[in-house]
Amino acid sequence: MCHDRKPMDNNQLFLNNAQITEFNEKGFLVVDFGIDDRLLEAIRYKVFPYYPDEFKNQPTIPARVQDVWQKVDEVRQLAVNRDILQALEQLYGRRPLPFQTLNFPVGTAQLPHSDTIHFNSIPGGYMAGVWVALEDMDENNGSPIYYPGSHRLPELNMQDLGLGNGYEYYKEYEQCIQRLIVERSLKEEYAIIRKGEALIWHANLLHGGAPRKDPSRSRHSQVTHYFFADCRYYTPMLSSEGNLSYRDPVWIPESADEVPQVLRKLSPGLVRRVLRKLGLVAGM
Asked: Which range of residues forms the domain containing residue 171?
């Protein structure tokens, strides 16, 4: 498997040993990468037109837009921020490959979950999320919540929980996770972080969105999901033992000049994925 991204310069390591230890112990790390405020503001305002009309008509309801890096270059720039990529390579020992962005205008109030139900890799564990605050976060505007140390729990797929495959069972999955939190006496923490700071989390960390105490407040943010080089990738939610639903990720390019070429490849890739799900082509 070939990836064209440049290797990390070991003379420009971003994280120190204490930060790496904290990430390994807690499953998350808050880092200030010194992201230019002008970039954050550009993302906030240029993404807004792409949010659903339902949200614009009723701005208190949760909303998101996926992969708008294809249309707003500032979103792409944040996803491939060199310091973030270097930090991820330090934490995982492999080159990070951004494959998905999500932008949010308000808090999600999403129930806790592990990203390993959505994304995983062979070998396992090579997926991470980075959540960047585009404005200050606190408990009133629905900050992210997480459960420190929960990344050390066993990865649970749908079969482990006695559920069927597919997103139609996702509500049942959330209920199982709620019971797990109670059974394990897990304690949540709130991501009270400032504009421009980033929350890096391990794929198996249980996390979600806190309820908004002040529904009138926004909570602009961007999440980028990363796989890592030299793995195979699949969707556990759609997989069963011996029948993995492999993914063919579209990597977010480091250069704006590469975007048109990537987008030209995107439509054929979607066709292949549809045919594969229909059993008309082999996986991977």
From this structure: 10-256
